[in-house]
């Protein structure tokens, strides 16, 4: 079988996981890279063995050998690049968030409908081992109807700076960057119900706090702390058409004792914590059971999840499978994220 020829667009921090995972996949030829910084593109091509370094998107899309792309660029370029890729008949794996706005997401969907290509959104948590294990319990009805979920992703110090902190390049702060992951994973495990009402709040109280010393954190490839136009905390209550609800809070910086990630789901037959460690709650013979699955990775296994995500994308491209994280899910999550920002700005509930 011919190998899938893949290019990675945007060779900053997260691209390492795409590039590394493609090189580990025996059915992929890592054909090329393209970054607005040609030096960075060249360095990553050399590091991971990509054979072509493109110097513009036009040059990349003109090369008819390319079959699929990973888009790992700033959020404000996602929609444009995704549409270019689709119009050039390429399969697309796009990093989260799908776009900056719901309108952009709908534009991508309109173009995708005309091109029968694989389009996968980078909801990497769907591919984590602990998620897959929990999903198998949920599919077997062990949780029953999930009517409540709660997700937190709180960084006490973790504004990545650079484009992440400029709203016109990112579309928002921790909500669009971190909230996208935890909202998606809850929504996916809850059975992807349609959103009905949203109440959200955002706060911009602490800035990026780059004066703090002796504590390291994730930084954009072009780290710069001089501009900060995004929220540092967001919270929301999201209610779905089936009556289920999801409570979420996320921060880039907060006077919290420690960083915290927690994802909890509660159903009619049982409950579960996906993070910080997979645990399942059940009831049998009038007794509550806390179940501790015996698996290697009880928490999010970053590198394995990325490898699974890439392998799944490649399988979809080569064998025409349906994606585990399809475009329509990216569009629905953009609707939710935007709804939270609208509710926060207008100071009232958004009803659909
Ligand atoms: N799945 C995850 O867990 C995860 C984690 C971090 C980042 N991300 C997402 O990945 C994307 C990139 O994030 P990052 O942390 O790697 O950022 P980064 O700043 O480290 O890297 C982005 C790269 O994109 C390049 N770039 C920007 N616009 C471009 C364009 N129009 N054409 C070509 N290159 C361009 C920049 O030069 C830079 O090298 C973002 O959408 C982010 O939300 C996902």
From TrEMBL:
<dbReference type="Pfam" id="PF02894">
    <property type="entry name" value="GFO_IDH_MocA_C"/>
</dbReference>
<dbReference type="InterPro" id="IPR004104">
    <property type="entry name" value="Gfo/Idh/MocA-like_OxRdtase_C"/>
</dbReference>
<dbReference type="InterPro" id="IPR052515">
    <property type="entry name" value="Gfo/Idh/MocA_Oxidoreductase"/>
</dbReference>
<dbReference type="InterPro" id="IPR036291">
    <property type="entry name" value="NAD(P)-bd_dom_sf"/>
</dbReference>
<dbReference type="InterPro" id="IPR000683">
    <property type="entry name" value="Gfo/Idh/MocA-like_OxRdtase_N"/>
</dbReference>
<dbReference type="Pfam" id="PF01408">
    <property type="entry name" value="GFO_IDH_MocA"/>
</dbReference>
<comment type="similarity">
    <text>Belongs to the Gfo/Idh/MocA family.</text>
</comment>
<feature type="domain" description="Gfo/Idh/MocA-like oxidoreductase N-terminal">
    <location>
        <begin position="4"/>
        <end position="123"/>
    </location>
</feature>
<feature type="domain" description="Gfo/Idh/MocA-like oxidoreductase C-terminal">
    <location>
        <begin position="135"/>
        <end position="350"/>
    </location>
</feature>
<protein>
    <submittedName>
        <fullName>Gfo/Idh/MocA family oxidoreductase</fullName>
    </submittedName>
</protein>
């Amino acid at each position: 079988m011919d190998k899938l020829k893949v290019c990675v667009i945007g060779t900053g921090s997260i691209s390492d996981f795409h590039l590394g995972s493609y090189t580990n996949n025996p059915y992929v030829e890592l054909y090329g890279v393209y970054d607005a910084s040609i030096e960075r593109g060249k360095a990553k091509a050399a590091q991971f063995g990509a054979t072509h370094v493109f110097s513009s998107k036009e040059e990349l899309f003109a090369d008819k050998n390319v079959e699929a792309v990973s888009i790992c660029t700033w959020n404000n370029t996602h929609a444009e690049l995704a549409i270019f890729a689709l119009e050039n008949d390429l399969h697309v794996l796009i990093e989260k968030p799908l776009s900056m706005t719901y309108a952009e997401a709908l534009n991508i969907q309109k173009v995708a409908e005309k091109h029968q290509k694989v389009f996968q959104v980078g909801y990497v948590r769907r591919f984590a081992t602990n998620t897959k294990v929990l999903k198998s319990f949920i599919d077997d009805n062990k949780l029953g109807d999930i009517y409540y979920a709660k997700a937190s992703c709180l960084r006490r110090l973790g504004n990545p700076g650079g484009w992440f902190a400029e709203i016109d390049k990112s579309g928002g702060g921790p909500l669009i960057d971190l909230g996208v992951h935890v909202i998606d994973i809850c929504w996916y495990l809850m059975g992807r119900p349609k959103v009905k009402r949203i109440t959200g709040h955002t706060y911009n109280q602490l800035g990026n706090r780059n004066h703090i010393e002796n504590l390291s954190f994730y930084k954009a490839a072009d780290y710069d702390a001089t501009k900060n136009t995004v929220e540092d905390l967001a919270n929301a209550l999201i209610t779905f058409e089936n009556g289920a609800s999801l409570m979420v809070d996320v921060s880039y910086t907060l006077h919290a004792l420690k960083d915290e990630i927690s994802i909890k789901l509660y159903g009619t037959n049982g409950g579960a914590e996906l993070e910080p460690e997979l645990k399942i709650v059940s009831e049998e013979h009038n007794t509550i059971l806390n179940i501790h699955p015996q698996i290697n990775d009880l928490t999010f296994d970053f590198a394995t999840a990325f490898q699974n995500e890439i392998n799944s994308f490649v399988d979809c491209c080569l064998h025409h499978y349906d994606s585990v994280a399809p475009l329509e899910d990216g569009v629905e999550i953009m609707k939710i994220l935007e709804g939270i920002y609208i509710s926060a700005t207008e100071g009232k509930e958004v009803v659909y």
